[in-house]
Amino acid sequence: LAVTMSILGLKKKQPKTFKVKVSTMDAEMEFSCEVKWKGKDLFDLVCRTIGLRETWFFGLRYTVKDTYAWLKPDKQVLDQEVPKDSPITFNFLAKFFPEKVEDELVQEITQHLFFLQVKKQILDEEIFCSPEASVLLASYAVQAKYGDYDPNFHKPGFLAQDELLPKRVLMQYQMTSDMWEEKITAWYAEHRSITRDEAEMEYLKIAQDLEMYGVSYFSITQNKRDTELLLGVDAQGLHIYSPNNKLSPNKSFPWSGIRNISYSEKEFTIKPLDKKKEVFKFYSSQLRVNKLILQLCIGNHDLFMRRRKVDSIEVQQMKAQAKEEKARKKVERQILAREKQMREEAERAKEEMERRLFLLQDEARMANEALLRSEETADLLAEKAQIAEEEAKLLAHKAAEAEHDRQRLEVTALKTKEEKRLMEQKMREAESLAVKLVEQSERRLKEADHLKQDLNEAKDAERRAKQKLLEITKPTYPVIMSFVSCTQLIAAYSKRYAYMEKSKHLQDQLKELKSEIESLKLEEQQQAGLYSLRSYSRYDCRHGRLHKNGLQGLRYEKTFHGD
């Protein structure tokens, strides 16, 4: 009994709630759920939390062993094969994809969630995308994230931290990240004025034309022993692919051509609407996968039929509200665009005014500098003019002095000419006298030579007379004759001595005359040099330079010879 009571107590103490963690494409949420909640209760709570009304596209997915499964709405959460972790982790993802995103996606939140999921599938290479399409899609993704391109704000390298291209595309070409960024930016710059919602819609419109968009692939066999094939389930129908080719199906069964899909254990049967066509059977070995295939087939077929019916009141209201909201946002965007344009124009006008102000300030500064330079130049020119005036006065004064000197020199020259004429006359007379004196001197020299000869003869006679006198003292000789001879000789010698004295006096006069001639020559040379120096420098007032005069003094030279 005690054991039974303790067991009942434990049952009563079991928790009435459990923790759940739900991850959307851009957020994570945690909820406390009641034990009795069904999958629909948790799903509706998540949709209400994020504000999603187009709930038929989405589901809560969880991982089971080596595959995944979707939470069933009509079954309790804890009764399903959900993980036993706490909190239980679910991913809120798109389970079904629209045929035309532009017509079917009404809410912005629905569109945004699809955009994030498709973008992740492309980057993870779950959806094949060509390099060209990848770059274009990346440009719309950048527009949705960063808004309009602004070269002043979006500098090179601003996409370095963003994952925009699949790794396969990056490895396919030998291009640097800067080169890829340049290509993406070139497209990005052309998306100006596109809002985030419009950029995301453009992204989805391009992505929905990709071959693998919205396709769920499963491994199957056509019979129990055949090679494996791939089954693709999407909004258009069922497709059979080769294992190595997920782009081009070998066979397709559109929903409009399928009458019935039956499932029995591991066997699927597709019955065409046309009874003449052959029934297609395929096999899948995993029970969980078979249930998942059946769920996707039912859900996609229901949506296919729903699209071809009139929209429900709820959908019509949603579309009307979305239309009004888009119209309102369009008006707001137009107003914002006008305000932005006006602001840009005002900024441009302001920049233009600032530029013009800067130019005017620069011109004013340059004008002030030019004025200062002009004033400095004017002062310098005035100073130069004053200096030039003073120099002109000085030059005029020098010119007057030069003219006065010239006139004085002309007068001096006239006087000098007269003096020179007189001096030449005197010199001619002196030369004539000198010639005469020289002739007399030569004559006197000759006479002196004769006198010397006579003197020598007298000396010889005197010597002979002395000899004879000595001889007289010895024998008896007529003394009177000897005395007379001696007296004659002495008289002749005295006469010749007087002539020599007269010749010496004449030579002294000749020397004095030569000295006087030399002094006259020296005086003439000094006067001629002074006249030549003064006549040489004549100042030209008009040209500020000296002219050389050719006037030279006269020079006369005479060489005198004599003792």
UniProtKB/TrEMBL annotation:
Cross-referenced CDD domains: FERM_B-lobe (cd14473), FERM_C_ERM (cd13194), FERM_F1_Merlin (cd17186)
Signal peptide start and end residues: none
SMART domains to which the protein is assigned, alphabetical: B41, FERM_C
Compartment(s) of residence: Cell membrane
One protein family per Pfam: FERM_N
UniProt keyword Secreted present: no
GO cellular component: plasma membrane
Keywords, ordered alphabetically: Cell membrane, Coiled coil, Membrane
Residue positions binding a 1,2-diacyl-sn-glycero-3-phospho-(1D-myo-inositol): K72, P73, D74, K75, K291
Main location: membrane
InterPro entries per record: Band_41_domain, ERM, ERM_C_dom, ERM_FERM_C, ERM_helical, Ez/rad/moesin-like, FERM/acyl-CoA-bd_prot_sf, FERM_2
Membrane topology qualifier: Peripheral membrane protein
Domain FERM: start-end pairs: 18-308
GO molecular function, one term: actin binding
Coiled-coil region: 319-472, 496-530
Lineage top rank: taxon: Eukaryota
Keyword Nuclease applies: no
Protein name in the entry: Merlin-like
